[in-house]
Specification:
By secondary structure, the protein is an all-alpha fold. The chain has a domain at about 65-115. The protein is built from four helices and no strands. It has helices at about 10-35, 70-85, 95-105, 110-115. α2 runs antiparallel to α3. It starts with 10 loop residues before the first helix and ends in a 15-residue tail after the last helix.
Length: about 130
């Protein structure tokens, strides 16, 4: 028994609501299983972006490896490498300070690679076993 003593005048609306919810859920499942949209309308006139897992961004002049912008973590990693090179005697204190300034101001990967231009690639420090 329902509230009010019976199904009442609104029971068809509850059935319609359930049907609508089930239909929307079915469409969402279909869209998920179909994967990313394909075809002409995919990007709506904008350059494609990597918005779905497995998609790759468009190849263009700004996506070359040297033109990709660097993060603070990548700058910090280069500064740590410079610190090790200075500690091993490959850089003077003046060179170290100048290169840290260049690394801090670097915006792209190519600018950051210039900082390490004449230094050997460092290997991870090894720990001795006791």
């Amino acid at each position: 028994m329902m509230w009010g003593g019976g199904p009442g005048p609104w029971w068809p609306m509850s059935i319609v609501g359930v049907v609508v919810v089930v239909a929307i859920a079915g469409l969402m499942v279909r869209m998920f299983l179909a994967g990313p949209p394909r075809g002409r309308l995919r990007h709506f006139g904008r350059p494609p972006i990597a918005s779905w897992p497995g998609d790759t961004p468009a190849i263009g002049p700004n996506t070359a490896p040297g033109n990709i912008r660097v993060s603070n973590a990548e700058r910090d990693e280069v500064i740590a490498q410079l610190r090790r090179h200075a500690g091993e005697g490959r850089l003077t204190l003046d060179e170290f300070e100048a290169r840290v300034g260049e690394a801090t101001e670097a915006k792209t990967m190519s600018e950051l690679q210039v900082v390490l231009r004449d230094l050997p690639v460092l290997r991870a420090p090894t720990r001795r076993r006791r």
